[in-house]
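Lab meeting, item 3. Inverse folding demo.
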């Protein structure tokens, strides 16, 4: 089986955020990821990681005004200063948490702006961020996200993400391949895994059941078979469990839903 990381933004909703580290460790996770750590001091998060014996494997750079609907800044013309400040903040957290990977969200394509302009902005920002990350010993990841969950999101397809990584040729820039989004947008997951994993351009995998983003033990994907394929392909990285537990915030609900990870599904 691959190594699984618990996504603490989605798993363990029955616990306060800071208590999710210990809960994940009790369930046998060795790594965790989350979306945005910025409302918590980095040293508090580092202490929770240390107490639980966990590795931080991924988190996201600041996405702009999330509450107002923003989903990243990287493709947005005129937001460069804010983008760069966000990367600096993310790199400081990455240092404190010893986290090697930062996901940089593209943003929603604004109406009335030519796609070519957004693309140029996106690529210039990513190149800058990747160079900063390389200097700090970190990597920047870009993730194609499905437009059903995030209408208007700028980056939707695996081939677009890989084309950007090839074009920019920044060693610290990689793709975050979320199989949930990939199945919704394009399918043919086994072919995509065989195409992209051996090339070294994928820096992180994530999973969830499709179509409802619950445990990967129901729905249209055969995850046990995909896990074997991922192992056969020699994947040494993490697989983030980024799903909403079917039992919601019921006490013990996340743990009860982890039978799939223990081969009990
Ligand atoms: O797939 C997702 O939704 C996440 O990986 C993310 O970073 C943006 O919400
Ligand atoms: Mg994801």
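The presenter then showed the designed sequence:
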């Amino acid at each position: 089986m691959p190594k699984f990381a618990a996504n603490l933004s989605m798993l363990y909703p029955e616990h306060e955020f800071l208590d999710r580290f210990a809960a994940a460790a009790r369930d046998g996770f060795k790594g965790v990821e989350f979306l945005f750590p910025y409302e918590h001091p980095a040293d508090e998060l580092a202490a929770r990681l240390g107490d639980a014996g966990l590795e931080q494997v991924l988190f996201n750079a600041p996405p702009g005004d999330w509450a107002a609907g923003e989903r990243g800044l990287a493709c947005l013309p005129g937001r460069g200063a804010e983008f760069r400040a966000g990367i600096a903040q993310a790199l400081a957290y990455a240092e404190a948490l010893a986290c090697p990977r930062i996901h940089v969200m593209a943003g929603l394509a604004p109406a009335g702006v030519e796609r070519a302009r957004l693309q140029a902005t996106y690529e210039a920002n990513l190149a800058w961020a990747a160079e900063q990350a390389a200097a700090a010993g970190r990597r920047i990841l870009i993730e194609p996200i499905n437009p059903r969950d995030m209408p208007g999101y700028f980056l939707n397809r695996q081939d677009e993400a890989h084309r950007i990584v090839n074009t920019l040729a920044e060693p610290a820039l990689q793709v975050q391949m979320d199989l949930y989004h990939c199945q919704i947008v394009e399918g043919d997951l086994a072919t995509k895994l065989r195409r992209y994993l051996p090339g070294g351009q994928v820096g992180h995998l994530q999973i969830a059941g499709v179509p409802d983003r619950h445990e990967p033990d129901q729905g249209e994907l055969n995850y046990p078979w995909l896990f074997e394929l991922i192992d056969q392909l020699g994947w040494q990285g993490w697989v983030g469990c980024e799903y909403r537990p079917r039992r919601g915030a019921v006490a013990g609900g996340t743990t009860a839903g982890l039978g799939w990870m223990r081969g009990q599904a």
